[in-house]
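Tokens as discussed.
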């Protein structure tokens, strides 16, 4: 079975809005999270779409989704965890509780604040995860990347042709992901930045699915303006 997991556990501190998490801010007349879940809802390959949000925002999330998405039969809203990877484990545990977690179960995980994901990206993630076991959506780096160990002096300027900018979705064989995560030490869990790194740390292949330059993550106030421009271009 194939599950979507929309990760909406963040509080958006970098957005500077103390009233609500950034996934509930509005672009194009609708909350960002609605745009994202709508893209998943159009993908009929998903058995269910799990939306994971802070516990106190569950009712609000259900309310705004039901107002904008006519068919909520495949959408479940549940609580996320304290960290991104704990949130992801909550999604896998939900699948397990439904009795649908086996060696072939695929989970497609995506940031709630990346509302411009395409059907092509979702489909390619499903195919790659089924074929390899794990995949990461990424886009070739267009800027030169500078590495600095102390934040003051340039340590290294890597070859840009070998660098990709990570996006989401990231997709996995769900049962294997949970097993690998549970095998990590506390120290290893502390350095995790995303789920794909779990597979890399354990020496497992992670296939690259090519993303899109417009598959941006809305993080700062400026990104809202960019998102509005993209939406106007789609009209």
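Sequence:
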């Amino acid at each position: 079975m194939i599950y979507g997991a929309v990760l909406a556990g963040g509080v958006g501190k970098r957005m500077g809005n103390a009233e609500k998490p950034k996934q509930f801010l509005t672009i194009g007349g609708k909350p960002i999270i609605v745009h994202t879940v709508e893209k998943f809802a159009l993908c009929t390959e998903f058995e269910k779409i799990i939306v994971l949000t802070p516990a106190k925002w569950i009712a609000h999330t259900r309310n705004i989704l039901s107002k904008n998405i006519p068919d909520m039969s495949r959408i479940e809203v549940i609580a996320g965890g304290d960290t991104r990877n704990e949130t992801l484990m909550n999604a896998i545990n939900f699948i397990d509780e439904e009795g649908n977690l086996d060696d072939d179960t695929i989970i497609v995980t995506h940031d709630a604040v990346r509302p411009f994901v395409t059907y092509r990206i979702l489909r390619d993630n499903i195919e790659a995860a089924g074929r390899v076991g794990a995949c990461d959506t990424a886009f070739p780096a267009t800027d030169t990347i500078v590495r600095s160990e102390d934040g003051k002096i340039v340590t290294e300027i890597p070859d840009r042709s070998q660098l990709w900018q990570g996006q989401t979705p990231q997709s996995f064989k769900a049962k294997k992901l949970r097993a690998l995560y549970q095998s990590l030490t506390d120290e290893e869990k502390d350095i995790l930045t995303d789920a794909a790194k779990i597979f890399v740390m354990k020496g497992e292949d992670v296939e690259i699915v090519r993303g899109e330059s417009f598959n941006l993550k809305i993080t700062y106030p400026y990104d809202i303006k960019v998102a509005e421009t993209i939406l106007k271009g789609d009209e």
